[in-house]
Amino acid sequence: MIGGEAGAGINRSGFLLAKSCLRGGLHVFGTIDYQSLIRGGHNFYVARADAEEIHCQAGTIDLLLALNKETILLHKDKLVPGGGIVYDGEETALGYEELGRDDLKLYPVPLKRIVKELEGELVMRNTVALGAAVALLRYDLEILSGIIRDEFKPKVAESNVKAARMGYDYAREHFAGDFEYCLEKTSSAGRRNIFLTGNEAVGLGAIRAGCKFYAAYPMTPSTGVLHFMAPLDREYGMIVIQAESEIAAISMVAGASFAGVRAMTATSGGGFCLMSEGLGMTGMTETPAVIMLAQRPGPSTGLPTYSGQGDLRFAIHASQGEFPRVVIAPGDVEDCFYKTIEAFNLAEKFQIPVILITDKYLVESHGTAELLDQNRIGIDRGLLLTGADYINEEEYKRHKFTESGISPRAIPGMKRAIVRTNADEHKENGYTTEDPEMTTKMFDKRFKKLDVLINQLENYETTKLHGPEGADATILGWGSTKGPIREAIKLLGKEGLKINYLQIVYLTPFPVANVQRILKSTKKTVVVENNKTSQLSSLIREHLLMTVDHKILKYDGRPFNPEELSQRIKEVF
Amino acid sequence: MVTLQDLKTPKKNTWCPGCGNFGILMGFKQALIQLGLRRDQVVLVSGIGCHGKMVNYVNTNGFHGIHGRVLPLATGIKLANPNLTVVGFAGDADCYDEGWGHFSHAIRRNIDITLIVHNNMVLGLTTGQTTATSQKGVKTKSTPFGSIPPALNPIAHALVSNGTFVARGYSGDTRHLTGLMVEALKHRGFAFLDVFQPCVTFNYHNTYDWFKERIYKLEEEGHDYADRQKALEKSFEWGERIPIGIFCKEERPTYRDSLPHVKGMPLTKLPVKDIDITVTLETMM
């Protein structure tokens, strides 16, 4: 863990250390905890690395890189026996008495003095600490230097490489062999694994899916998608625009999509509130749209830089009236990539809005993924009419009645096709209607698409079972709890408990048959969620008329740690 | 080339007899005919209100959207496909109340679209309440003792937002209005045309007679539309004499002009399949 004030480069240095582990062939997970401020306060980044596959952070710390004293006092009790603290001994006085425990190793490194000697910026203290950490962990400094050179501009990179080297040398000289934990490169070193956030994975998925228009208004934690897409607009031929509000963003997306382009926006709860009317408009006008909703704890502003899962019902029901939609919950960075491509396909095939529901913990944490398979999910644009001319004899009707309810989709500019749509109830040709018979027929048309969609989803991974089929208990969860749940059942497995985990990937339409099948084969059901009212439990009751046996809920803005979660699972047995 | 007959739709017109919207509808059709545009090249976007029915009454591509969102919708369409002629129709409440947050932004971005605002200074379809352009003191159903704040000045706002085409028309003078619409549609950049449009049912104050007594044409008094300062001065004229015509016009690069990688290229023509993201993936190794 590396911690300090906001503005001290915590996120960046945590990332550098984590990525160094990746290059050594390790599996890595990195997560940032920060407050809603720019300078001061307390930020920390936890990087966990292992030769085995890992899926989340752990509740304990082996090595703490503390850029100020507050960091030490806040986190000292999470350190394992024999754990180490790297800190600036010339700036911070620290003794075992103050720590209240004497089983820790103290590694004072003159971070500030070294930076001064280098005539560097104060922010480079963290790089010195990284160098010292590499020495203590007996890891490879060359890997860290390589990462620094890749991530910084040349001039800045060189001074940081020097800083890391000086921290490394200092620690080697003063504390060689003293720290019992070490990092070792594995035989997978040099394998083409990648390290990325959920936001980046969603962005990559969108680009791969052929998204050409991205509009958004900045809102934590979804802003990472905007930051990812904006510099890539030239490379991939996209327009990325910061709209004046979320209302504008969704409307621009609807406009671009109506014009025939794959388009997307992302936001968080408050912004999604503003998008509700636009969401309904895409439903009514049968305009494809992909919306990523990255949750944070509400209500209202809540904890703006923390994580939660309180918006599930909101995503499912947002906007007035009834219209078909899809709500997909990716659980890790790989899901973020593949499900985003899937979302674009479904949006266009069924001409509906598709919501990807994520959260801060998922989209801002870094995870290791195998090199993403660009061809796993093909591109399917459904009944989009291509070509410059509309050649059919019959007049084009944007909302033509068909057996599947899906109308062939011409785009404006196509010769001889007049494309007219309408947020008012409308006839097949898009003209307004208030006729009761037509209203009923149009509702039925839109919902016929849902029937077809539900049928087709049988071929999709709408749920995913982790662990054995028959088990003593089944954990049910959705979204970012995936990592902690997988780790927790692994821990419990070591204690002889046979527990499996059903990840519910599609929340709307709800995968009734899949969930039912698993629930029937298990003895006990436990829902794990980061919300207060256990919204998944209520969905299960709604769709399956089944009550889950136990609910493990956490709604303090922080993700579950595996140790904590496994303990709570044990308690319900 | 498009004809009046082509532009006709089967929808029965439901505006009140004598409604100022008829002048806008006729003027717009005439402008399309004069410009020789094809129906499939044009996209109309409308919001909610009496004006919103324009999409029902002009037989081109159209998106009848929701209240206040004409500009971001039209922006999305135009950015996606610059080959389309995109025209937004909004009412005064639609654009200056509900959608006000979008107005200055669409103007300052200089998106290459036309915005025509049916400004009758009252909410018509909801049967007569005040709007942003209702004059101070005007009694409506929601302001039975008179509207309290002064009216908003859309022309001045457009001018200070660096609007590249800012004009006002009057639906009682269709020939003049058609001319303004032609100029607006020809303008490369954001063309804003506010149109006085008497509501014969709910606005008892700003009637045809009221306008007729006050309106004069800027071009007849030698206004130089290249002079933004002077235009701003003119935009504050209200009371006995009210100017119509082009207040300000200038050439400035459009939003899309500043995106060299897609300049002039419809996004619809770019490949969707087989986008190779390997280069970006490599930065994550």
Search tags:
heterodimer; A: about 575 residues; alpha/beta; Pyruvate-ferredoxin Oxidoreductase, domain 3; Rossmann fold; 3 domains; seven-stranded mixed β-sheet; 20 helices; 21 strands; B: about 280 residues; eight-stranded mixed β-sheet; about 15% strand
Structure description:
The radius of gyration of chain A is 26 Å and the shape is globular. Chain A has 3 domains: 2-191, Pyruvate-ferredoxin Oxidoreductase, domain 3, CATH 3.40.920.10; 195-370, Rossmann fold (3-Layer(aba) Sandwich); 463-571, 3-Layer(aba) Sandwich (Rossmann fold). In chain A, helix 8 packs across helix 9 (223-229). Chain A is an alpha/beta fold. Chain A contains 20 helices and 21 strands. Chain B is α/β, with parallel strands linked by helices and 285 residues long. Chain B has a single domain (4-282), classed as Rossmann fold. Chain B is built from 11 helices and 8 strands. Chain B has helices spanning 4-7, 21-35, 54-57, 70-80, 92-98, 100-109, 154-160, 174-186, 208-214, 228-235, 278-282, and strands at 42-46, 61-64, 85-91, 114-119, 165-170, 191-196, 215-217, 242-249. Chain B has an 8-stranded mixed sheet, sandwiched between helices. In chain B, strand 1, helix 3 and strand 2 form a beta-alpha-beta unit. Chain B is globular and about 70 Å long. The termini of chain B are far apart. The model of chain B has no long low-confidence stretch (mean pLDDT 97). Chains A and B meet through strand 7, helix 8, helix 10, helix 11 and helix 12 of A and strand 2, helix 4, helix 6 and helix 11 of B.
Brief summary of the model shown:
The complex is a heterodimer of chains A (573) and B (285). Chain A is of the alpha/beta class and 573 residues long.
What is the tally of beta strands of chain A?
21
Helix content of chain A: 25-40%
Name of the CATH class of the largest domain in chain A: Alpha Beta
* Largest sheet, spatial ordering of strands of chain A: 6-5-4-1-3-2-14-7
CATH topology of chain B: Rossmann fold
